[in-house]
Each structure stands twice: as structure tokens, then as C-alpha cells.
Specification:
Helices cover 75% and strands 1% of the residues. By secondary structure, the protein is an all-alpha fold.
């Protein structure tokens, strides 16, 4: 306990410094500002605002990026409640009952409860993060390259196929991401790979341009195609009209607790995260509710539980990322990429070597969520005004700032072309119903898997069977293989069943 208090005191000195507070506030504000735009979503917001953090000291950069993350998460829920235009699937769950509440003139109560549930869920997730990361990192310090390869493969496969609904397409996306991660100089031999003689590609493709191209541009293009701006369901959203009734508090308290627990559990598992947590928490609340018929028509439990689950999952997703260096979802992959850009090797050594970064980040989570709570309740009116700006005026400005941000990272014009190329790739993948998130995961994790795989082969003198001689690595690989077989097998089984039904109908 003394060690934990000492570490939290260290984190407080970092997070409560003027710079820490300023960049935390900036991250939360900008994240909400961009995240509130309908259709943009968390990934696009993170990708577009990521270049701003590259010129900061690593701790401050991660504090700001984290602020952008949960700011965007809250902003997405605002658009979902007021306009029924969620930027992400997690926001869509909130909108199931949030938008009907707005139609009934209770938008203020829905937004207020969203802010409270987000804070409660985040607080629970931070407690889990502070409690479990250090013990887990101590165990991880005993891992060798074999175990890391197995863990990364598990994270990659699980995050790609679980919850996506399109397993085979996701696996193709992962493979494409792994192939793109090979571009650049071979770290061992120094031989250029797939660079076509272009020296600008020796360091590989720029992560920022790839991420924004895949997530940011397609979202903007898809949203700008809409000819009319949807009507905002404002209702009474003055601050004094936002306060929930006693009945609202009573009905929301336990859903928030249950949602936080569900989110904390699923967030720490690779491949599940906020999406599965929000759906599970919504389903649980509907099942345990005394009034299940009200769900989908404006039940406040349907807003409180998914929001608490989502934000709890957001925080607990940092557990494997910070303690093992294994991202559980694409958002954590971006965080990992930013750490590598700043020269920080993600994994258990971060906690040992950079306690100021780790504990400063944890304390900043609490401060950032507190800022989110204090800021967003009085600023709801401003977010509503932003939602009314016509897209033809708003989106060109966002694209212009995005290009400037990308160019400012390396001062290379080729990064803009990479952005455009991946923008078209992302658009094409959306049109063909391919997941782009697994591609980014493969792109970030590919070089790391290759490096640890080579190291494992050197240690074992080229014996590939050594992966199965080690109990932990062998078990993790067996689980990974089982998930892979399940993903492919279930799709093939479904295809055979559908074919059988068609044949029966034809014969009939």
C-alpha cells in the first residue's frame, strides 16, 4: 500500500504540473470538439489530432492523446443522443435510448447522465489499471521473445476476429497490414524491402498518415456526401434543466455499477474492448430491468449502463497495453505507435524505467475525466451550435488542418501522398465491407512480431518447435490457433448452411 501511495504521489506531481493540466485540458477539449461531429468517431478523431502530440515531451504527449481519446468518446455520445448519428458502434448503443429521450424533450438529462456514467466507469477502470498493471508487468518481465510473439499473435487475431462479424475479411485486412509493415529497411541486414528505390520509404510508411488516411478521410468523405444536415433534438439543455430527477438517479445507480464491472472485465481482454462491453451491459440491463418494454423508447438505464461500460473498458484497455506492450484494439495500437515514435519501448520495462510516465498518465486519467465532467455540462450549448455548422463549410477546414498536421511531423510532402493513397484505400475497403481497424493493428504489430520472432529463433538456434516447448508460449499459441479455427470454421459452417437452405428452396 505504501508503494502504491508513493507512486500515486509521483503521478500527482506530473499530472498536476501546469504543463500536465494544460495538455490534459487541451486533449479533452479538442477530443470532444472533433468527436462531437457526427460520423467522425473515436478512431478518426485520434488519427486526425495525433500529429499535434508529436512535438511534445512523451509523458505530455500521452496525457494529451488520452484526453483526446475519452473526449472523443464523450463527444460521440453527444452526437448520438442529439442527432442519432453515432460515430462509433459504442455510441450507437447509447443512442438506442438516448435519442428517444431527446425526442421526448429529455436531451439534457440524457447528456447529464452520460457525463456522470462516463466518470463513474472511468474511475472504476483507473482503479483496475492502478491495481493490476504493476503485478502483471512483474510477471511479464520473466517473459522471453517466444512468449511475446505468442501474446502479440493472440492480440492480433483476437482483436481482428472477435466482435467484428466479418472474420475472413478481417483476417485479410490483418494480412495486408502485416505486409505493409514490412516496407522499409530490414533491421538485421539493412537491406531495403519493398521501397522501390525510394529513400523516403527506408523508415517505413508514416504511421500518422496511414492512420488518418484509413480512418479520418473516409469518415469525412462519407459524411460530406450527406446533402442535408440532420435536425438536432435540443430539448431543454440549459444547465438548470439538465439535472436528472430523483427517479432517474435511482434507476441509473445500479446500471452504472454493473456497467463499470462489465466494462472493466471486457476492456482488459484483447479483442473485445468497449464494443462488446457496451452491448453486453445493455443486454444485461434489459434482462434485469423491471420495465424491459421501455428499452429502446427512452429508458435512462439504457444510457447509463453502456456509457459506464464503455468508459470503464477504455481505461482497463490500458492494462495489457502498458504492462505487456500488447494493444487490445486499434485505439491502443495508435497509443503504442505514439510511444514508439517518442522512442519508448512499450512493455513492462516502461513501468520500471519510466514510473513518472506511467503514474503521471494514470493520475491524468482521473483529472481528465473530472475535466470532462466539469467542462461538458456547461458547454453542451456550444456543442449543439457546432453540430449545426453546414458540412460544406466544416469538412474542408478539417481536411486542410489534417494535411498541415501530417506535413509538420516529418516535413515531407510524400506523407501527404501516403495520406491520400490510404484515404482511397480506406474508402475502397469501406465500400467492399472490409474492416480497416485490423489493417492498422497488423501494420503496428507486424514489425514488433518480426523482431521478437527473429530474436526467438536466434535464442533457440532456429528451432521453430521451441515455441511449443515453453508452456506459456505453447498455451497462448494453442488458444490463438483455436480462435483462428473457430473464426474460419464458423464462417464456412454458416456458408454451407445457407447453401443448403437455398438448395432446399430451389428443390421445393
Amino acid at each position: 500500500m505504501d508503494a502504491l501511495l508513493s507512486n500515486l504521489a509521483l503521478g500527482l506531481t506530473v499530472a498536476l504540473s501546469w504543463n500536465g493540466l494544460f495538455y490534459c485540458f487541451l486533449g479533452v477539449f479538442l477530443g470532444t470538439l472533433v468527436g462531437v461531429l457526427p460520423g467522425i468517431g473515436i478512431m478518426a478523431t485520434l488519427a486526425m489530432l495525433m500529429p499535434i502530440t508529436f512535438h511534445l515531451e512523451p509523458t505530455l504527449a500521452l496525457i494529451m492523446l488520452s484526453g483526446i481519446y475519452y473526449g472523443a468518446s464523450y463527444g460521440g455520445s453527444t452526437a448520438s443522443i442529439l442527432m442519432n448519428l453515432p460515430g462509433t458502434a459504442t455510441s450507437a448503443v447509447t443512442g438506442l435510448d438516448g435519442y428517444p429521450m431527446a425526442q421526448q424533450g429529455r436531451a439534457g438529462q440524457a447528456l447529464f447522465m452520460t457525463a456522470i456514467a462516463s466518470f463513474v466507469g472511468s474511475l472504476f477502470g483507473v482503479i483496475l489499471l492502478a491495481g493490476f498493471s504493476v503485478p502483471l508487468s512483474r510477471v511479464a518481465l520473466r517473459f522471453g521473445p517466444h512468449e511475446y510473439v505468442a501474446l502479440m499473435l493472440l492480440g492480433l487475431i483476437a482483436a481482428s476476429v472477435i466482435g467484428s462479424g466479418r472474420s475472413l475479411r478481417s483476417l485479410i485486412s490483418v494480412s495486408l497490414g502485416l505486409a505493409l509493415g514490412l516496407i522499409g529497411l530490414d533491421l538485421n541486414s539493412g537491406v531495403p524491402r519493398f521501397t522501390f528505390g525510394q529513400t523516403v520509404l527506408f523508415d517505413g510508411l508514416p504511421l500518422v498518415a496511414v492512420a488518418i488516411g484509413l480512418f479520418g478521410l473516409p469518415e469525412i468523405i462519407a459524411s460530406s456526401g450527406s446533402k442535408t444536415v440532420p435536425r438536432v433534438q435540443e430539448g431543454k439543455i440549459r444547465l438548470r434543466d439538465m439535472l436528472p430527477t430523483r427517479e432517474d438517479w435511482k434507476r441509473s445507480a445500479m446500471p452504472m455499477v454493473r456497467g463499470s464491472g462489465i466494462g472493466g472485465f471486457f476492456g482488459a481482454l484483447p479483442g473485445t474492448g468497449g464494443l462488446v462491453a457496451t452491448f453486453v451491459s445493455y443486454a444485461v440491463e434489459r434482462r434485469v430491468s423491471k420495465h424491459p418494454e421501455e428499452f429502446g423508447k427512452g429508458a435512462i438505464e439504457g444510457v447509463a449502463a453502456p456509457e459506464a461500460a464503455n468508459n470503464s473498458a477504455v481505461q482497463s484497455a490500458f492494462i495489457p497495453t502498458l504492462s505487456l506492450g500488447i494493444p487490445g484494439d486499434p485505439v491502443m495500437a495508435i497509443m503504442l505507435g505514439v510511444m514508439m515514435v517518442h522512442g519508448i519501448i512499450p512493455g513492462p520495462t516502461v513501468i520500471q524505467d519510466r514510473p513518472d510516465l506511467f503514474w503521471g498518465l494514470i493520475v491524468s486519467f482521473i483529472i481528465g475525466n473530472l475535466m470532462l465532467l466539469v467542462l461538458n455540462l456547461p458547454l453542451v450549448g456550444m456543442w449543439v451550435k457546432i453540430l449545426k455548422i453546414p458540412y460544406n463549410l466544416l469538412f474542408p477546414v478539417i481536411v486542410a488542418f489534417t494535411c498541415i498536421g501530417i506535413y509538420s511531423v516529418n516535413y515531407q510532402i510524400v506523407d501527404i501522398f501516403v495520406l491520400l493513397g490510404f484515404g482511397f484505400l480506406g474508402l475502397g475497403m469501406r465500400a467492399l465491407k472490409f474492416e480497416v481497424a485490423p489493417l492498422l493493428l497488423g501494420f503496428v504489430l507486424g514489425p514488433m512480431i518480426e523482431e521478437y520472432f527473429r530474436r526467438a529463433l536466434i535464442v533457440s538456434r532456429g528451432d521453430i518447435g521451441s515455441f511449443f516447448d515453453r508452456p506459456i508460449a505453447g498455451t497462448i499459441l494453442a488458444i490463438t490457433f483455436a480462435i483462428l479455427v473457430w473464426a474460419i470454421g464458423s464462417k464456412l459452417f454458416a456458408a454451407f448452411r445457407a447453401r443448403g437452405r437455398r438448395e432446399v428452396q430451389t428443390d421445393g
